[in-house]
Specification:
It is rod-shaped, with a radius of gyration of 38 Å. About 70% of the residues lie in helices and about 10% in strands. The longest helix is centred in the middle third of the chain and has 68 residues, at about 110-175. It is α+β, with helices and mostly antiparallel strands. Strands 1-2-3-4 form a 4-stranded antiparallel β-sheet, with no helix packed on it. The protein has 8 helices and 4 strands.
Length: about 425
């Protein structure tokens, strides 16, 4: 019964590992390329984002708005045509034909402030793109390092299962030779079963992390679902002395440009107290009776609308409220970014200290494992002690590998806090 249970467990584990391998092979077959780096995954994912797809059109719109602000008139000129006759009543031959143009005029200060608003919106397009890239990079980085953590756990579980299998095989040989009891064989087999269960959980977690990364990268995830963490490529470390100023952070720049746009819109609304006046220039040909000569004339007119009243006040107050709100958000955003800088830098220092301790522990555990392995082979150490030392060594190796991932992840989070994109 015990052997049958072990066989079923091994078959289930083999099925899970095979499914994960097939998943990775299917992903590799889709691209026929090696697993990309974090930077490559970011670039591929960004190319499919809605902001990236619409970027060219937004730039064209901003450029067109700048050109409109530099035009001679706020709106296109209009052609006016009128024809007056008395055919429907007296029919004496009276006729008047008028052809002219209506030219909208800029209000005082409107053209300058329209140009400032167009310039602010042009700058806002670029900062909005950088902020969107940083937000996507944050989601991708989180999923990427979760995938790396799952890789470490899966690799450690595979190693532990392999070592447990070797130890169980050695115990089986010594059992046949009469050096060990059947109870020792059961303990060794139990250690193998525990390692197989841990590997199954690790492989399931790895498959889930790979799928989450695929979602975060919009289908541009690394294809090596069963890869090992040996291919880890951390992002470049950040020198604290060369950290970027808060004003250069994409999120801060985006908010700052939005505030500038709101202030420019409020300034423009302050001068748009009425609709634009119109200058009319028309040429007229008219006669009073049939048979008379047409007499030409020129008409020059000016149309001045009345003030906007409460409507203008509402628009101006709304624009000023938006500008005030964004300025307040700027202060809060600066504090948030500075706090994230300090927290991220502290996480990097803590992760490096933990890595140093974990590597020292792993080295000592490895040396102790060698001592006890030799002692066990000589019969000087019992099997429970040997199993305990093996488990401690495996845990030390796992923690050291995890600590290396945490250092790389902390550096990545620090770069995210500084507003740096993946490299």
């Amino acid at each position: 019964m015990h052997r049958r249970t072990r066989r079923v467990g091994r078959l289930a584990l083999a099925g899970l590992v095979g499914a994960a391998s097939a998943f990775a092979q299917a992903q590799n077959a889709e691209t026929g390329a090696a697993a990309p780096t974090l930077k490559q995954a970011f670039e591929a994912a960004w190319s499919r984002q809605p902001e990236a797809v619409a970027l060219r059109l937004r730039r064209e719109a901003a450029q067109a708005q700048q050109q409109a602000a530099q035009a001679w008139t706020p709106e296109p000129t209009a052609l006016t045509l009128s024809n007056k006759t008395d055919r429907l009543n007296r029919n004496l031959g009276a006729h008047e034909l008028e052809v002219g143009v209506a030219i909208p005029l800029w209000l005082p200060g409107e053209r300058t402030r329209s140009g400032a608003l167009a310039e602010a919106e042009t700058s806002g397009v670029e900062s909005r793109v950088l902020a969107a890239q940083l937000r996507m990079a944050g989601v991708l980085r989180e999923a990427w390092w979760q995938w790396q953590r799952a890789l470490v756990e899966a690799g450690s579980a595979r190693d532990q299962r392999a070592n447990a299998g070797l130890l169980a095989a050695d115990v089986a040989k010594r059992l046949k030779a009469g050096d060990l009891a059947r109870a020792d064989q059961h303990q060794a087999d139990g250690a193998v079963a525990t390692a197989e269960s841990a590997e199954a959980r690790a492989m399931a977690a790895l498959a889930g992390a790979a799928q989450q990364l695929r979602i975060a990268s919009v289908g541009a995830a690394p294809r090596g679902g069963n890869a090992t963490p040996a291919g880890l490529e951390p992002e470049p470390p950040v020198d604290a002395a060369s950290a970027r100023d808060v004003a250069m952070h994409p999120a801060f720049r985006d908010l700052q440009d939005r505030a500038t746009v709101a202030e420019s819109a409020a300034a423009l609304g302050a001068v748009r107290t009425r609709a634009n006046p119109e200058l009319t220039l028309a040429a007229t040909r008219e006669r009073d009776l049939r048979g008379e000569r047409y007499e030409p004339s020129i008409t020059l007119g000016l149309r001045i609308p009345f003030g906007g009243g409460s409507r203008h006040t509402a628009r101006t107050a709304s624009a000023q409220a938006e500008a005030t709100e964004l300025q307040t958000q700027l202060l809060l955003e600066r504090e948030r970014i500075e706090a994230e800088h300090e927290a991220a830098r502290a996480r990097v220092a803590s992760a490096r200290a933990q890595l140093s301790a974990a590597e020292r522990r792993a080295q000592l555990a490895s040396e102790s494992r060698g001592f006890f392995d030799k002692s066990f082979r000589l019969g000087e150490t019992d099997l429970p002690t040997r199993l305990r030392i093996e488990a401690e060594a495996a845990e030390a190796r796992r923690q050291a590998a995890s600590a290396r991932i945490e250092v790389a992840a902390a550096i990545s989070q620090w770069r995210q806090a500084l507003g740096l994109l993946p490299e």
